[in-house]
Write a structure and sequence with these properties.
The complex is a heterodimer of chains A (357) and B (292). Chain A is α+β, with helices and mostly antiparallel strands. Chain A contains 9 helices and 20 strands. In chain A, helix 2 packs across helix 3. Chain B has 292 residues and is an all-alpha fold. Chain B has one domain: MetI-like fold (Orthogonal Bundle), CATH 1.10.3720.10. Helix content of chain B is 71%, strand content 1%. Chain B is built from 12 helices and 2 strands. In chain B, strands 1-2 form a two-stranded antiparallel ribbon. In chain B, helix 3 crosses helix 9, helix 9 packs antiparallel against helix 12 and helix 11 packs antiparallel against helix 12. Chain B is globular and about 70 Å long. Chain B starts with 13 loop residues before the first helix and ends in a 6-residue tail after the last helix. The chains are: A alpha+beta (357), B mainly alpha (292). The interface between A and B is medium-sized, with 27 and 26 residues. Chain A: Part of the ABC transporter complex PotABCD involved in spermidine/putrescine import. Responsible for energy coupling to the transport system. Chain A: InterPro entries: AAA+_ATPase, ABC_SmlMolc_Importer, ABC_transporter-like_ATP-bd, ABC_transporter-like_CS, Mo/tungstate-bd_C_term_dom, NA-bd_OB-fold, P-loop_NTPase, PotA-like. Chain A: Pfam families: ABC_tran, TOBE_2. Chain A: The complex is composed of two ATP-binding proteins (PotA), two transmembrane proteins (PotB and PotC) and a solute-binding protein (PotD).
Amino acid sequence: MSEPRTLLAIDKVSKNFGRVTAVDGISLDIRENEFFALLGPSGCGKTTLLRMLAGFETPNHGRILLDGRDIAKTPPNRRPVNLMFQSYALFPHMSVRANVSYGLEMERLPAKEIRSRVDAILATTELVAFADRKPEQLSGGQKQRVALARALVKRPRLLLLDEPLGALDKKLRGAMQLELKRLQHEVGITFVIVTHDQEESLVMADRMAVLRDGKLLQCDTPHAVYERPADRFVADFIGVMNFVPGKAAADGVLAANGARISGTVPAILSPGAAAVASVRPERIRLFPPPETANRVAGIVEALAYHGLDLQLHVRTALSQKPFLVRVTADAADRRPVASGDAVELGWDAADVRIFAD
Amino acid sequence: MNSYRPSRSSLLMAPALAWLTALMVVPCALVLALAFFRRGIYGGIEYSFTLENFGLVLDPLYAGIFLNSARIAGTATLIAVVIGYAAAYAIAAAPRRWQPVFLFFAVLPFWSNYLIRTYAWIVLLNREGLITQLLRWFGYTGEPPSMLYTEGAVIAGLVYNYLPFVILACYAPLSRLNPELAEASRDLGASAMTTFRRVILPLTVPGIAAGAVFVFVLSIGNFVTPALLGGGRFQMIGNLVYDQFLTANDWPFGAALAMALIAIMLLVLTAQALAADRAAGRIAQAKGGADD
């Protein structure tokens, strides 16, 4: 396989509003035909970054290279980039067809070509039956598809999506996640999606960037970000994580109660430094075999049945917060536990991630 | 069958209804009735039915005054809409916390009396008025320009007096417009001008229409401004009606003129109401997204 080509290079880009720095020296490469997610809590700068890619904000520093050309100062109507707005921003006085045609009319294409391209995208997004309706006559999911069709019909080099599923209910959101991914494959356009929903980016993205306070914390595949988070914040923000605070030792972390959590200590942590050992709930076993490296006794405080699995809160001497443990329904059936039971938890050293605290 | 039974709360309408009936409906009915009688030989009214007064309204002399009034009111409306819309646009684009301040300044002239505001224009436009003095101060030595008692002075007075209505009427839809609509248009490749023409303007037409109808209706029937700033040389219907009642003593003809004027106003208002009804759906939509 050949090395994927870089489509968009964000080069040390900063943006401040007055004294507030919204984006602080971010560098990122987004590749051709990639589904890329910008993820972070609200106020992390992801929306400002997206607006700079669309052309609604100009960076104070840095370059934005699209196909090698700096577009940082190009106005939004002159860049081959389209944005799907969070509010969808459909023109309320125009029909679905007029909304979708609008962008092609701006390119002054022949009427015949506009018609055939609009027809094609309405078919792809399953909107043919609604072509003559006004936006007010559409459901939330239909509006979302019109917004998508209106941006896609322009055949942009880059499609930006600002919280595209935020306005949909949970069930529809799950279906649309897969639908968006299928569409992206079908049209072969690079997608950059902004979201605060970590699950959404895990499901949809080929690669994702995690932002906090205007800075880039980690940029990698969802699998790598989940399994090898760059720091404590990323570990906490993506998925669920159990933390054991303590001090760094040669081959693990010494917890406050003197217990040792075995794991690989990153080189930057000198022995004795404040550190935190972490493990994902699904990596913890109930009643572990004797050779398991890390073991701790605890009391089941609460359990929640989720159908697919059982989630236990287990109080231990290792941390203030109870451990969250996920047991498959299958395992729970074989060896039932109840609230108040004394249990033993265990996990391998390979499943432990250690961060500076 | 359901018959309408007034509830207790509808009693709250009674004072307003009584007020309007006594001071609006009854006088209008009286004026309407008056229009069908003859003028007495020495003034006064002769109570015999005739349609002559309405025939006279269509006489080229008087129809011309109607047309002239419509032209002056139309010009004032056009100027007020252009200036008022631009001001409303600027206010709606200003930071949120400054908008009430700017609106306050826009309506500030209303705090003084209409007559006083119109007299102020005489001070401005007079041959030796403020404008002439300002020109002199800049070194102008020629004849003072004649600005007062011209049609331009009448139009300036009308625009000045009714501009705040246009600003308020246009500000409402402009401030409710979801700013992402304009951004979406730019994003799809439209220039700022095209965005205005194809997205912003169509969605704010109801405000323009409301403001324009207001200025037009109030201008076409106005008699104070043409009397003071036009110096009686530029007659509008309002002045004509005034003259018939107070100078010519031909009340029936004055009543017929007044009825014709009211008919024109009702026509314009009805047309605007019908158009606004059709556009109501658009406005409701354009609000979306701005409030989250």
